[in-house]
């Protein structure tokens, strides 16, 4: 059985506690995506883990995060492929650490909305 450790960024904007990387070690199969593992952490280890997801097919971008500093879509990343690239310990952080609301959830950015003309 293959195992992996996800060191997941934990933070809550509403509390004053500092952010931490919390390790979760779990088994994985060759078919699972990183989003599958985050869902398993949520249901099997810690029901307070917060992250976004929507389409689960790589279209909406809501599951965007960083793996060892590289921005990726969790639903599109095969875990076995990540292990072959980075080893079996991954650092999972928000894609933008300055706008974190909670754990891996980031405030939406609408900086280009002023350019949209509504008629
Ligand atoms: S959940 Fe939509 S891109 Fe991953």
Description:
The chain has a single domain, classed as Beta-grasp domain (Ubiquitin-like (UB roll), Roll). With 119 residues, it is an alpha+beta fold. A hairpin with a 2-residue loop joins strand 3 and strand 4. Strands 2-1-5-3-4 form a five-stranded mixed beta sheet, covered by helices on one side. The chain has a two-stranded antiparallel ribbon with strand order 6-7. The model has no long low-confidence stretch (mean pLDDT 91). It is globular, with a radius of gyration of 15 Å. It binds FE2/S2 (inorganic) cluster (FES). FE2/S2 (inorganic) cluster binds next to loops.
Q: Which key features would you list for this structure?
A:
single chain; 119 residues; alpha+beta; Ubiquitin-like (UB roll); 5-stranded mixed sheet; two-stranded antiparallel ribbon; globular
């Amino acid at each position: 059985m293959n195992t992996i450790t996800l060191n997941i960024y934990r933070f809550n904007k509403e509390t004053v506690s500092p952010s931490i990387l919390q390790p979760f070690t779990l088994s994985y199969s060759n078919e699972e995506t990183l989003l599958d593992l985050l869902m398993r952490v949520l249901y099997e280890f810690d029901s307070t883990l917060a992250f976004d997801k929507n389409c689960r097919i790589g279209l909406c971008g809501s599951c965007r995060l960083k793996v060892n500093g590289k921005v990726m879509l969790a639903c599109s990343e095969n875990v076995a492929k990540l292990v072959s690239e980075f080893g079996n310990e991954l650092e999972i952080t928000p894609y933008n650490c300055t706008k974190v609301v909670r754990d891996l959830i980031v405030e939406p950015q609408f900086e280009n909305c002023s350019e949209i003309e509504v008629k």
